[in-house]
Protein backbone atom coordinates (compact mmCIF):
# COMPACT_ATOMS: atom_id res chain seq x y z
CA UNK A 1 0.00 0.00 0.00
CA UNK A 2 1.33 3.47 -0.80
CA UNK A 3 2.05 5.73 2.19
CA UNK A 4 -0.48 8.29 0.88
CA UNK A 5 -3.73 7.81 -0.97
CA UNK A 6 -4.05 9.39 -4.38
CA UNK A 7 -6.81 12.01 -4.71
CA UNK A 8 -8.06 10.10 -7.76
CA UNK A 9 -9.29 7.34 -5.43
CA UNK A 10 -11.69 9.83 -3.89
CA UNK A 11 -12.79 11.21 -7.24
CA UNK A 12 -10.70 14.37 -6.96
CA UNK A 13 -8.43 16.00 -9.50
CA UNK A 14 -4.67 15.27 -9.02
CA UNK A 15 -4.13 18.98 -8.27
CA UNK A 16 -6.21 18.56 -5.11
CA UNK A 17 -3.21 16.92 -3.44
CA UNK A 18 -0.96 19.79 -4.53
CA UNK A 19 -3.41 22.38 -3.19
CA UNK A 20 -3.71 20.49 0.09
CA UNK A 21 0.07 20.33 0.53
CA UNK A 22 0.49 24.02 -0.32
CA UNK A 23 -2.16 25.00 2.24
CA UNK A 24 -0.57 22.78 4.88
CA UNK A 25 2.87 24.31 4.20
CA UNK A 26 1.50 27.85 4.45
CA UNK A 27 -0.30 26.99 7.67
CA UNK A 28 2.86 25.50 9.20
CA UNK A 29 4.99 28.51 8.22
CA UNK A 30 2.40 30.93 9.59
CA UNK A 31 2.29 28.99 12.86
CA UNK A 32 6.08 29.08 13.14
CA UNK A 33 6.18 32.83 12.48
CA UNK A 34 3.42 33.51 15.00
CA UNK A 35 5.09 31.45 17.74
CA UNK A 36 8.43 33.22 17.48
CA UNK A 37 9.18 35.47 20.44
CA UNK A 38 8.31 39.10 19.97
CA UNK A 39 10.97 41.30 21.54
CA UNK A 40 9.96 44.71 22.76
CA UNK A 41 13.54 45.82 23.17
CA UNK A 42 15.15 49.11 22.29
CA UNK A 43 12.24 50.53 20.37
CA UNK A 44 14.11 50.80 17.09
CA UNK A 45 10.81 51.03 15.27
CA UNK A 46 11.65 48.08 13.02
CA UNK A 47 9.53 44.98 12.80
CA UNK A 48 11.08 41.56 13.18
CA UNK A 49 10.75 41.01 9.43
CA UNK A 50 12.68 44.22 8.71
CA UNK A 51 15.46 43.18 11.08
CA UNK A 52 15.75 39.76 9.44
CA UNK A 53 15.70 41.37 5.98
CA UNK A 54 18.47 43.80 6.96
CA UNK A 55 20.58 41.00 8.43
CA UNK A 56 20.26 38.86 5.29
CA UNK A 57 20.94 41.87 3.08
CA UNK A 58 24.18 42.64 4.92
CA UNK A 59 25.30 39.00 4.65
CA UNK A 60 24.54 38.82 0.92
CA UNK A 61 26.19 42.15 0.10
CA UNK A 62 29.36 40.87 1.76
CA UNK A 63 29.32 37.84 -0.55
CA UNK A 64 29.05 39.85 -3.76
CA UNK A 65 32.20 40.14 -5.83
CA UNK A 66 33.74 43.54 -6.35
CA UNK A 67 32.48 45.57 -9.31
CA UNK A 68 34.17 44.50 -12.49
CA UNK A 69 36.03 46.82 -14.80
CA UNK A 70 34.84 46.21 -18.34
CA UNK A 71 38.25 46.82 -19.92
CA UNK A 72 39.86 44.13 -17.72
CA UNK A 73 37.09 41.68 -18.54
CA UNK A 74 37.51 42.36 -22.26
CA UNK A 75 41.25 41.65 -22.00
CA UNK A 76 40.65 38.37 -20.22
CA UNK A 77 37.96 37.28 -22.66
CA UNK A 78 40.21 37.94 -25.67
CA UNK A 79 42.61 35.30 -24.33
CA UNK A 80 39.94 32.67 -23.64
CA UNK A 81 39.50 30.04 -26.30
CA UNK A 82 36.31 28.23 -27.13
CA UNK A 83 35.67 24.55 -27.82
CA UNK A 84 38.29 22.67 -29.83
CA UNK A 85 36.07 22.62 -32.92
CA UNK A 86 35.87 26.44 -32.99
CA UNK A 87 38.98 28.36 -34.04
CA UNK A 88 37.51 31.60 -32.69
CA UNK A 89 38.76 33.35 -29.59
CA UNK A 90 37.44 36.15 -27.46
CA UNK A 91 33.96 37.45 -28.17
CA UNK A 92 33.57 35.14 -31.16
CA UNK A 93 32.89 32.27 -28.77
CA UNK A 94 29.28 32.05 -27.47
CA UNK A 95 30.37 31.02 -23.96
CA UNK A 96 32.61 34.05 -23.67
CA UNK A 97 29.74 36.31 -24.71
CA UNK A 98 27.64 34.71 -21.99
CA UNK A 99 30.42 35.20 -19.43
CA UNK A 100 30.62 38.85 -20.37
Question: TL;DR of this structure?
Answer:
This protein has about 100 residues and is mainly α. Helices cover about 55% and strands about 0% of the residues. It is built from four helices and no strands.
Explained architecture:
- With 100 residues, this protein is mainly alpha-helical.
- It is built from four helices and no strands.
- The chain has helices at 15-35, 48-63, 70-79, 94-99.
- The protein is flat.
Strand fraction band? Answer: under 5%
Q: What is the rounded distance between the termini?
A: 53 Å
* Mean residue pLDDT: 80
Low-confidence stretches: none
Number of DSSP strands? 0
Shape call: flat
Rg calculated over all Cα atoms: 26 Å
Give descriptors for this structure.
mainly alpha, flat, 100 residues
